[in-house]
Design goal:
Zincin_1_sf, Metallopeptidase family protein, Zincin-like, 6 helices, mainly alpha, Zincin_1, 3 strands, globular, single chain
Length: about 130
């Protein structure tokens, strides 16, 4: 395979991969996460990095913003939809650095991790589940 004519995947390419990853998830998982908006950006904003105490934008591959399912109430009418952000450049950097996983699998991993937060799981909960697989 010649790489000389290949370009890095664009934001639109990532969005297609994220949609494919979401569509491949089990039906029950998709139904529970159905109102989550998936967005692809190159990097997190400076405000996001500051709020999380992160100095290097390459350290954050994804982010969940919203009220998780466990804390929602019928009184939450009119709230913003929950969002999952996938950050293209940090994901590409991790993918290139690792070299042991496909880009589609890494995007799926980050997406599922962030949707886990939508379900109310902490990072520790998600890592524990991953370790059990």
């Amino acid at each position: 395979m010649t790489w000389s004519a290949r370009l890095a995947p664009s934001l639109d390419d990532f969005a297609v991969l994220a949609k494919q990853a979401f569509d491949a998830l089990p039906d029950g998982f998709r139904k529970l996460s159905g109102d989550v908006v998936i967005r692809v950006d190159d990097f997190p904003s400076e405000d996001v990095l500051d709020s999380l105490g992160i100095e290097d934008a390459f350290e954050l591959t994804g982010l969940y913003q919203g009220v998780d399912l466990g804390r929602r109430s019928v009184l939450d009418y009119g709230t913003e939809p929950s969002r999952v952000f996938l950050y293209r450049r940090p994901i590409l950097d991790e993918w290139a650095e690792r070299g042991d996983v496909s880009l589609g699998d890494l995007i799926t991993h980050v997406l599922v991790h962030e949707i886990g937060h939508h379900f109310g799981l902490s990072d520790d909960d998600i890592h524990r589940i991953e370790d059990e697989e």
